Amino acid sequence: MTAPAPLKSAIRPGLAPGVRLSFDKARDCWVVLAPERVLVPDETALEILQRCNGSRPVDEIVDELASVYNADRGEIAQDVEDMVSDLIAKRILVG
Amino acid sequence: MSGAANPTPPLAPPLAALLELTHRCPLQCPYCSNPIELERAKGELSTDEWRRVLDEAAELGVLQVHFSGGEPTVRRDLPELVAHARRIGLYSNLITSGVTLDRARLAVLAQAGLDHAQLSIQDVDHQTAAHIANHPGVQGKKLAFARWVREIGLPLTINAVVNRHNVTRVERMIDLAVELGAVRVEVAHVQYYGWALRNRAALMPTLEQVQEATQRVEAARARLRGQIVIDYVVPDYYARQPKSCMGGWGRQFLNITPSGEVLPCHAAQTIPGLVFDSVRHKPLAEIWASSAAFEAYRGTDWMPEPCRSCDQREVDWGGCRCQALAITGSAAAADPACALSPAHQEMRSLAEAASAAPAPDFVYRRMTPQETPAKVAAATR
Ligand code: SF4
Ligand code: SF4
Fold this sequence. Notes:
Oligomer: heterodimer
Structural class of chain A: alpha+beta
Order of helices and strands of chain A: EEEEHHHE
Strand content of chain B: 5-15%
Structural class of chain B: alpha/beta
Radius of gyration of chain B: 20 Å
Helix content of chain A: 25-40%
Largest sheet of chain B: 10 strands, mixed
Distance between the termini of chain A: 23 Å
Bound molecules: iron/sulfur cluster
Number of helices of chain B: 14
């Protein structure tokens, strides 16, 4: 847990233009719809994505998830930051 | 077809549908993915029919629709169809040549709820671009279109089709996509079916050119990470492993022609003996589940050796049926892109011979039956 965070905790991630998070009735799951891509987020990813609305800083998302899951804040922070920076590189999120 | 002995898992719904709204197009690219026998305007589905098809697609589980052609924007009802797709929750993508719309009509599409636009380019070099599309001034129009897309706030993908005339400029095409503010660039070597197969000798790059292009794409990926998504479609003729065409026949994707025929892939009509169903006569769900064309190569039951006993058979699904047909004469053979195919060396040799010889003139994509390539070229200079 000592790896340097590649991400500033103050950025406010949101879905990139052309990306939608929507519920798929036929498959009974949430999907991320992006140019030529359909991603099926797992439960953790979904919890994070649903909070990426472009107005809430990463810090606040981490605080909330830590309290909802009653989990170690450091661990949650790592998960959120890893996922957010990966999805920014893939152009699913913008920071 | 299905043996009672091994019960098959329930069929998953398709993820995406490509809707060829029309085969009309002002450009004449010699690698066009449309069939040689282009469909006429009078046979096209009506607005109401396309709306019903969209409803049936969404109901079936399709998530993304690609409005394509020909040039889909020559259909005046496109904004209505885009709006309908948005209303029922479908993600919509416009695949366009960018030469027919003005800014105002593009804005109408964005307002109707279009999610994304994909613009094809022929080259960075204006003259070669005009030669490939057989359309003077094509590049200027495309650059203007790309600007409008960004000004209006739509996300943009640039689709660059790579062939022997532009292969040395792949990196510049990627840089152009970045300059134009694209979120994604698709660098795709020509796939040799239909028009492209007819023009194979005029389009095929050498192995050295392909290797160089691949290196340049890799370098650009490293350099532009986080700035733009780069998808690279490698050329089958120099490959050792086949692509999983469309994620497997009848597994994720369907294609609907202007008159409503439903195909497992855009080139499926090149396979003799396949029978297609039309949305005019049957519901889409029924076609997906049981149309003879979809059943023909779905899953692995149809496979002969070497695919039948290969551990990759549920990874690449034996590769592309249309390519197997084009090279071996049998659509059920292993894709010759596979090193295990008996026709593998033959396909490689075809590419080497074609690319070593001087490029013949293009046979441009046309509605009317064509004469010899020489005559067409003479008439267009
Ligand atoms: S490949 Fe060229 S000619 Fe064919 S539909 Fe696309 S823009 Fe038109
Ligand atoms: S033998 Fe068939 S299944 Fe195996 S890798 Fe080649 S094409 Fe794919």
